[in-house]
TrEMBL record:
It comes from Diacronema lutheri. Its main location: cytoplasm. The lineage of its organism: Eukaryota, Haptista, Haptophyta, Pavlovophyceae, Pavlovales. One of its GO terms (biological process) is fructose 1,6-bisphosphate metabolic process. This is Fructose-1,6-bisphosphatase, cytosolic. It catalyses: beta-D-fructose 1,6-bisphosphate + H2O = beta-D-fructose 6-phosphate + phosphate.
Length: 339
């Protein structure tokens, strides 16, 4: 109970980062990301009071109407990342072009982020989240788009912050497992609550998560996989929030599979590689799960092997427990093997 909260030994995010990297610049970068998450959480919490709901009257690069909180959260992240002097290139869902940090403020990290993913849920107070991926710049000189158009397996840090009933940050440092931090608003610190998070060993709860409204447009193997989930006297449960952070967080903790396949409307899928697919794939794999594109450009790809050619490139996503992702991919293999 609350009395058990340690009054002396605060296991904060910054303490975790210091213990897991000797790189001061990475420590500073994670502090800037945490600050932006806290400020965004605050904005989401006060949105109704401060009239931050509704449209900002502009559109983002994907043609979506931008909402005030979209714009505000993006400004918060860009400001925090520019001024921490640890970044060279920023890619945001809300900015068409990469932001090249001026040489006087440049550091060695490149961050791709969706500042407020799931924004269609904002006005009805359903949970949203920030998703981010961090690369270390390997090309000397000023930042360019080539510093961030990299394979997922080059990521050094991946994470998301969920603005739900609690504000929770989940991060994965390359090779150091998945860790959960809950924001304690009374002291403004992310407290380390769970170390080395893993999918349930048996694949966990039988849950599939997909927007079945699109099922008529899916490719046939995906339709057959979901029909399989719904068959028999103990069908899978359907859980779908429509906010990737919420759907992936539940899948990570409870098990099951999250599917956003390619369809006739979006033949390349809807979710973006750099700041949705890759960060979630790194976390899912580090937790013992599987992250695949499903059938994409005629082949089934491990998500982390993709090499995006554009900063807003999209891909299909099938991720979750090994049990359930492999069940879905089995329908693709059968289809591919069919004469
Ligand atoms: P649909 C939100 O707009 C988002 O990018 C992800 O957060 C979410 O998983 C997906 O799109 C929802 O898409 O087509 O089901 O509304």
């Amino acid at each position: 109970n609350s009395d058990d909260v340690d009054q002396v030994n605060y296991k904060t995010l910054s303490r975790f980062v210091m213990a897991n990297t000797a790189d001061q610049e990475l420590t500073i970068l994670m502090g800037a990301i945490a600050l932006a998450c806290k400020a965004t959480a605050r904005a989401c919490r006060k949105a109704g009071i401060a009239n931050l709901f509704g449209l900002a009257g502009e559109q983002n690069t994907s043609g979506d109407d931008q909402k005030k909180l979209d714009v505000l959260s993006n400004d918060i992240f860009v400001n925090a990342l520019l001024n921490c002097h640890a970044c060279a290139v920023l890619v945001s869902e809300e900015n068409e072009d990469p932001i090249i940090v001026p040489p006087s403020m440049q550091g060695k990290y490149c961050v791709a982020f969706d500042p407020l993913d799931g924004s269609s849920n904002i006005d009805c107070n359903v949970s949203t989240g920030t998703i981010f991926g961090v690369y270390e710049k390997t090309i000397p000189g000023p930042g360019t788009v080539d510093d961030i158009l990299r394979k997922g397996k080059d990521l050094v840090v991946a994470g998301y912050c969920m603005y739900g009933a609690a504000t929770e940050l989940v991060i994965c440092f390359q090779g150091r497992g998945v860790h959960r931090f809950a924001l304690d608003p009374s002291i403004g610190e992310f407290i380390h609550t769970h170390a080395n998070v893993k999918f349930p060993a048996d694949g966990g709860k039988k849950i599939y998560s997909a927007n079945e409204g699109n099922s008529g447009l899916w490719d046939e193997p995906c339709q057959r996989a979901v029909a399989h989930f719904k068959s028999g006297d103990k069908p899978y449960a359907l859980r779908y929030v429509g906010s990737m952070v919420s759907d992936v967080h539940r899948t990570l903790l409870y098990g099951g599979v999250f599917i956003y396949p390619a369809d006739k409307k979006s033949p390349g899928g809807k979710l973006r590689v750099l700041y949705e697919g890759f960060p979630m794939a790194m976390i899912v794999e580090a937790a013992g799960g599987v992250a695949s594109t499903g059938l994409f450009n005629g082949k089934i790809h491990r998500m982390m092997d993709l090499e995006p050619k554009g900063v807003h490139e999209r891909c299909p996503v099938i991720l979750g427990s090994e049990r359930d992702v492999n069940l879905v991919l089995g329908f693709y293999d059968t289809a591919a093997a069919a004469p």
